[in-house]
Amino acid sequence: MDTIELIIDEQLxxxxxxxxxxxxxxxxxxxFVALSKDQHxxxxxxxxxxxxxIVGLALVPDKLIYRRRGDYEYNITFSxxxxxKASELYLKRLKNNNTTLExxxxxxxxxxxxxxxxxxxKQDKTA
Length: 127
Known about the structure:
Blueprint: E1 2-6, E2 20-22, E3 34-35, E4 42-43, E5 65-69, E6 72-78, H1 80-92, E7 99-101, E8 105-107
Parallel strand pairs: 1-6, 2-7
Antiparallel strand pairs: 3-4, 5-6, 7-8
């Protein structure tokens, strides 16, 4: 199966991520994590209704993401550098209020309030 590495080439006017999408089944196959009132307890669910905060992964470097177009099956992947560049451009270009539902419909009232890249999984706050 082919693997295609997606890149961002700013010289071609590519902007990277235009919106974060809230989806039921993420292509990266990672669960969202919502922080509960008790900060010592992490629950695997999509929404904390009281705080209205969701936490989740947008891109995972070097992860193979399955795709299919007609009969053509392939994987896409993003390098660590591309994930970093996408994160930086998303915030620099003030796209943090651009969100969609299921990659289709733009929605309002949802903002990215924090973005970070895990440098050391053992020392990261998600641990």
